[in-house]
Fold Transmembrane protein.
Amino acid sequence: MWSVLIRIFAYHEKVDWMYYLAFGAVVIGIVVYSIGFGDEDQNPANAVEEPVAIRQDEEASSATHSKGNVSGSSKTWVA
């Protein structure tokens, strides 16, 4: 951007129309990005749900590991 401005005002040279098109595309892209992602950063939808899901997974995995370690399980009973 600065080189285009220096070329126009300091050297009094013409600039191709593609520079203006590219600059407009960049400005539009920045505006769309700023508007589109503003709400997601402030209130993430899964912020509360993740710890609960992790806690449930830990409880489920600890229950499955402890079933075989309990004395008096069906394997130790003699009929």
